[in-house]
Amino acid sequence: MSINKMSKDELELLSNKDITNLILEESNKSLNTAELFKKIIKLLELPESIFESKIGDYYTALSTDKRFILLDDGTWDLKKRHTSDKLVKIADEDDDEEEEEEELPEKEEAEPIIEDNFDDKEEDYDDDANEELKDLVVIDEDELELEG
């Protein structure tokens, strides 16, 4: 059934993504996000204010749906119409960046600098360790001999 012949009630039962799928199948051409969303608003007889408030959500929905593909010219089409050589692969771009990083000349590793940390202040010590030692009593050697 043609999308234009469907009643408003029938269209309301479909998601915006499903309506987009029908629009793209019938149009046989790719359309940009605004054109698609305006067609949906017109079909569902929604107020124009919906366009401004929901266009971002609509774009996100199309981006996450595997039925659609965003072409280089900024239009959406059905993925099934395109061969893999026309698809823009984000993963390939990431791979290119990794290859570029690998091609950089390797730097010689410098020997690590060992610092003398014996002059650290008391505040660097663990507070829990200080808490455990608060009941500790220090006995002088002379006091120890007196007790024995």
Explain the overall architecture:
The protein has a domain at 3-83: Arc Repressor Mutant, subunit A. The radius of gyration is 34 Å and the shape is elongated. It is 49% helix and 6% strand. With 148 residues, it is mainly alpha-helical. The longest helix is centred in the middle third of the chain and has 16 residues, at 49-64.
Helix count, DSSP H or I runs of 4 or more residues: 7
> What is the number of E strands?
3
What is the C-alpha radius of gyration, as a whole number of Å?
Answer: 34 Å
Poorly predicted segments: none
Mean pLDDT: 77
The largest β sheet comes out as:
3 strands, antiparallel
Shape: elongated
Estimated share of beta-strand residues: 5-15%
What would CATH call the class of the domain at 3-83?
A: Mainly Alpha
What is the CATH H-level superfamily of the domain at 3-83?
RNA polymerase, subunit delta, N-terminal domain
Largest sheet: spatial strand order: 1-3-2
